[in-house]
Specification:
The complex is a heterodimer of chains A (119) and B (106). Chain A is mainly β. Chain A has no helices and 11 strands. The mean pLDDT of chain A is 97. In chain B, a hairpin with a 6-residue loop joins strand 4 and strand 5 (44-48). Chain B contains no helices and 11 strands. Chain B has 106 residues and is mainly beta. The chains are: A mainly beta (119), B mainly beta (106).
Chain lengths: 119, 106
Amino acid sequence: EVLLQQSGAELVRPGSSVKISCKASGYTFTDYYMHWVKQRPEQGLVWIGRINPANGNTIYAEKFKSKATLTADKSSNTAYMQLSSLTSEDTATYFCTRFRGYNRGFDYWGQGVMVTVSS
Amino acid sequence: EIVLTQSPTTMAASPGEKVTLNCLASSSVSYMNWYQQKSGASPKLWIYGTSNLASGVPNRFSGSGSGTSYSLTISSMEAEDVATYYCLQLSSYPYTFGAGTKLELK
């Protein structure tokens, strides 16, 4: 069974950074790109970027290039996203999701991590 | 960036009613994927490759379209279909979602 288990909720101060994780199981981690998606409270879904766990290659949406850093650890089958210089605009739920292909889309999703930026 | 415009933003349907949700792309895309998201839950793949139902999706759902115009249809609305539905294009970076259609029960 494919599972993407994300880390727990975070309460962080403005200006700080946070690193959230996504542990994959039930499939070969390096065979599928991992993508990340943002959802602000009561808002829609926004694509952040993706990482190829096999070689660490990344692609980001323009608006997240200086905000998010995606990494992957093949030894632990875990993908990470670090968010920096946090503001209230970063308060959101962040999902990791496995990419199955251009016509198959994102087939499995993590449960989401709620990041709250507040002083 | 390809902008996806979903319509309507919100709609209410009666049990048994036929429902059509639309997704208009600002440029032509090869496929459209649809996701269902219920309150407090992660999105679920619902329709992929424009017209293929994901595993476990009832066959009252269907998807169609090409180029810049796509749709998701429910042949007969049921209470369990209450959710927000998002379209997603993967034809070019950045990948983009529509703003969603919130489907309610009348």
